[in-house]
Amino acid sequence: MNASGCLDALIAPDVARGLDTFVTKTVTPEPRAGNPPTRIAEIEFGMLNSIGLANPGREAFIAETLPRLASTIDIPIWVSVGGFCARDYVETCEQLARDDVACIELNLSCPNVDEAPESAAEIVAACRAATANPLYAKLSAHSSDLGETVRAVESAGADGISLINTLRGVALDAQLAPRLARGAGGYSGPALKPVALGAVLAARRATQLPIVGMGGMQSGRDVLELIACGATHAALGTVLFADPDAPARIRAELTDECARAGFASPADAFGVALGNVANLAN
Amino acid sequence: MSKPRRERRSVTGVEAVGPYALVRVGRGGLDKGAPGQFFMLEAPGHVLPRPMSLCLAPRGELGFLVDPVGPGTRALAALRPGDRLHIFGPLGNGFRVDVPRPLLVGGGIGIAPLPFLADALPSAPALLGFRSAHHAEAALLVRNAEVVIDPVLVTDAMPPGHDVLACGPEPMLEAIRAISPSAQLAWEAPMACGYGACYGCVVEVEGELKRLCVEGPVLCFS
Q1: pLDDT for res A278
Q2: Which of A46, A49, A190 sits opposite B200 (nearest CB)?
Q3: Is residue B153 packed enough to be buried (19+ CB in 10 Å), middle (13-18) or exposed (0-12)?
Q4: Residue A93 falls in the annotated catalytic set
Q5: Is A159 exposed, middle or buried (0-12, 13-18, 19+ CB in 10 A)?
Q6: Angle at A15 between CA A216 and CA A38, to 5 degrees
Q7: Active-site residue among A110, A127, A229, A258?
Q8: Sheet containing A40-43, strands listed edge to edge, beginning at the edge strand earlier in sequence
Q9: CB A87 within 8 A of CB A66
Q10: How far is CA A181 from CA A46, A56, A184, B113, in A?
């Protein structure tokens, strides 16, 4: 699957069709034009973005975008839901009770917009009461005790966990001014891989729920390591920007990497790193 | 419109043109597209490719004019014949060439798409602005070109009554738009993907955000 925000299946349906699942860009209650330019900057080992959840708003999304998506691609569609308070999330979840929504991923960790005042678990609990759809909580690696957060959102009714979102960062130009108009942005790309592996491992120690792992995935080897840390799904983000053929390439590489490492299938590598990485704090 | 493809191609030549580098690669199965369209070029050692409009399309090759101003463009300008890189394109919307009185206007590295555009409009006059005589050496790439050098601006020298097709820095494009509201203008912004995935390459024109890779890079406002 793709990481939310990293693909528009209506503009690039052929790229989406290479995935097992398509995750939409985050939908907010009102339309958002997004942040002013400059929105992206390549930096060492990755990139910063401050797109700012540009989206048509939930009314237009449900009336126009979702039906078009459903008729364009025939893979399950996960809808990423964002908001600025628990009520925003709840109302969008209520309106997404539709057959063409396979899952709702609550974006509880966008570094580019103001956060809701409620905790991740409070938002998950409120949405759980509002929808029968599968609910995934997309968490940040910034959490001081990720295992505790994972246990809390599980108790609140989450069906799965998505990890990690981009990390907040700043890049400066030659004159020491921020390169992004908004100042800070979300850091993504290969540098995030060890952070993603560490977060997935910590989450896997805290829960038996499915985990969508993402962050810095560039190759089949990266995905194999993610699975070994306990991810049940892998999502591609920044790599899709540089290589729209990445889904097929990484799938083929994963098969080769499994064989090289002595696994008959990726499922056989699930969680094997947990036993090898002892006493991992958080 | 031709379908974009991504291929790994070999560099066939790199020439200095004033302060710029003209990087030629084998065309392979890639379509040259329309003037003003662009390609994403893998920048060796970098996470993201760089968007470059097609400058020249000699038989069997694609040529890109690169201004080595940052780490990615310096990596591209440092390519050597035989080096291989991924190229994805053609992407975006190019210039409409079915205009009665075309005038090509370019500023600095913004002249990059004009040689290929001039192939499609062989009798169109061209007006190019540069910041120095060294930069103006690149004017040799555009046939029929009149050259102005800072402090003279292209807008000081633009003859009236033409259909302007322009590419250059944002202040130049805004100044041209003020004189010639129907001008076709090729804009530039940092881009991550080039194919509509990232929503990163917006420019703000008249209070509206335009995604250059799918709505541009050539925009026309009237």
Answers
A1: 61
A2: A49
A3: middle
A4: no
A5: middle
A6: 60
A7: A110
A8: A40-43, A46-49, A184-188, A167-170
A9: no
A10: 18, 22, 8, 28
Please count the residue pairs, one from chain A and one from chain B, whose beta carbons lie less than 8 angstroms apart.
Answer: 91
Interface of B with A in 55-114 (CB under 8 A): 71-72, 86, 88
Chain B neighbors of A38, CB-CB under 8 A: 189-190
Q: Mind listing the pLDDT tens digit for each residue in A118-131? A: 889 999 999 999 99
Strand pairing report for B20-26 and A135-138: unpaired
pLDDT tens track for A127-162: 999 999 999 999 999 877 899 999 999 999 999 999
Residue of A nearest to B47 (CA): A46
Give the span between the Cα atoms of B186 and B190, in whole angstroms: 14
**Residue among B71, B193, B214 minimizing CB distance to A241:** B193
- Cα angle: B179, vertex B174, B171; to 5 degrees: 130
Q: What average pLDDT values come out for chain B (222 residues) when binned by 10 residues?
A: 89 97 97 97 96 97 97 96 98 96 97 97 96 96 93 92 96 94 94 94 88 93 72
Please name the residue that has the structure tokens 């540089």. A242
Cα–Cα nearest to B89, from B120, B57, B54: B54
Determine whether the interchain pair A38/B189 forms a contact, defined as Cβ–Cβ distance below 8 Å: yes
Q: CB A174: neighbour CB atoms within 10 A?
A: 7
Q: What is the pLDDT of residues A31-89, one digit of tens each?
A: 999 999 999 999 989 999 999 999 999 999 999 999 999 999 999 999 999 999 999 99
Between chains, do A38 and B72 touch, taking CB under 8 Å as contact? no
Q: What is the pLDDT of residues A232-280, one digit of tens each?
A: 999 999 999 999 999 999 999 999 999 999 999 999 999 999 987 665 5
> How many CB atoms lie under 10 A from the CB of residue B179?
11
Cβ <8 Å between B199 and A189: no
ipTM, interface predicted TM-score of the complex:
0.91
| pLDDT digit string, tens, across residues B100-125 | 999 999 999 999 999 999 999 999 99
Contacts of A238 in chain B (CB under 8 A): 47-48, 192
